Amino acid sequence: MKVRPPRTWTTVLHCLLISGLIVEAIEPVSTSLLLGTGAAVLGKKLYHYFYETCDENWLNFNATGLKHDLSTKLYGQHVAAQVVLKAVTGFMNNENPKKPLVLSLHGWTGTGKNFVSQLIAENIYQKGMTSNFVHLFTATAHFPHEAHVDKYKTQLQEWVRGNVSICPRSMFIFDEMDKMHPGLIDSIKPYLDFYDNLNGVSYRKAIFIFLSNAGGEKIVEVALDFWKDGREREEIQLKDLETALSLSVFNNKNSGFWHTSLIDKNLVDYFVPFLPLEYKHVIQCGLAEMVSKGHAPDKEVVEAMARDLNYFPKEERVFSMQGCKVIPARLDFYV
Ligand SMILES: Nc1ncnc2c1ncn2[C@@H]1O[C@H](COP(=O)(O)OP(=O)(O)OP(=O)(O)O)[C@@H](O)[C@H]1O
Ligand SMILES: [Mg+2]
């Protein structure tokens, strides 16, 4: 007697056969579909991973990070830290700003103006200062010849327009603003204003930062007065420095920046004063520099270096002549 497989077996076999055929029929398509989708997703991921794009993959404001950096890495600048944090956080949290953010940083040499711009960039762009969306211009390096001002104007306008149309959240830093030709400053003025858009490009999400030593001496006078009166440096408030700044900067007809109507038209949102740095800040900078160079922080080494720097006024030796600027180079001789 032949044993016939039970009906259920044949059904099962049937099903297996049919499903096998179906699987066989669908498999190549679905596999390639799956692989294709996978590759596309992976490709997109890799693209975002390697290629800097103007989106949240590369561009994300970190308010806590900026606050932390300003309070732990920046020394002796309580006023600047406060103003910068407030200005940048307010602007970045506003989904629909009416105009771009325009900051003007002022103060004595080596007090942290470029450094603060770097901290801002690092807390907005993942690549910080090396981001393709951060543009640094230095007056004497990029626009050296007065005779070429007209050419510079066109190039600068094209650069700003082109880059903001690629990435609205672009940042432009103008160093040595007091050495910039007035005509050149005039040429970027429209971008700083309250326009909905200019020729189809909106500049409202961009950030402009101007750096200069203008007003630095007046800021020093205020800081020195506080020191002479035996008052704490931390007591100095923005309003104490604003008057000093306006007296020296706004009325100084020799300074290129102020020939223009940047101020008259209120295009600058915040004037940020940087105080001259004292011996104790030089020590802090020196210790941080040692750590960044991979050494164990050594107070004796840093003190030896700090003692050899120049301070002013000559008698009192209160403020470092070059701020913290020469420390990276000097420290090498003492380590
Ligand atoms: N207040 C500060 N706190 C911490 N580090 C500082 C400070 N000021 C300066 N430094 C250090 O010194 C370096 C030089 O300072 P920075 O270039 O920011 O000075 P600056 O104000 O732009 O001077 P200049 O007016 O000469 O251009 C910085 O990269 C940083 O390492
Ligand atoms: Mg500088």
TrEMBL record:
Residue runs in coiled coils: none
GO cellular component: endoplasmic reticulum lumen; nuclear envelope
Entry keywords, A to Z: ATP-binding, Endoplasmic reticulum, Glycoprotein, Nucleotide-binding, Signal
Primary residence: endoplasmic reticulum
GO MF term set: ATP binding; ATP hydrolysis activity; kinesin binding
One of the GO biological process terms: nuclear membrane organization
Subcellular location: Endoplasmic reticulum lumen
Signal sequence annotation: 1-25
Binding site for ATP: G107, W108, T109, G110, T111, G112, K113, N114
Domain Torsin-1A C-terminal: 277-334
Family to which the UniProt record says this protein belongs: Belongs to the ClpA/ClpB family. Torsin subfamily.
UniProt-recorded name of the protein: Torsin
The organism of origin for this protein: Cyprinus carpio
Phylogenetic classification of the source organism: Eukaryota, Metazoa, Chordata, Craniata, Vertebrata
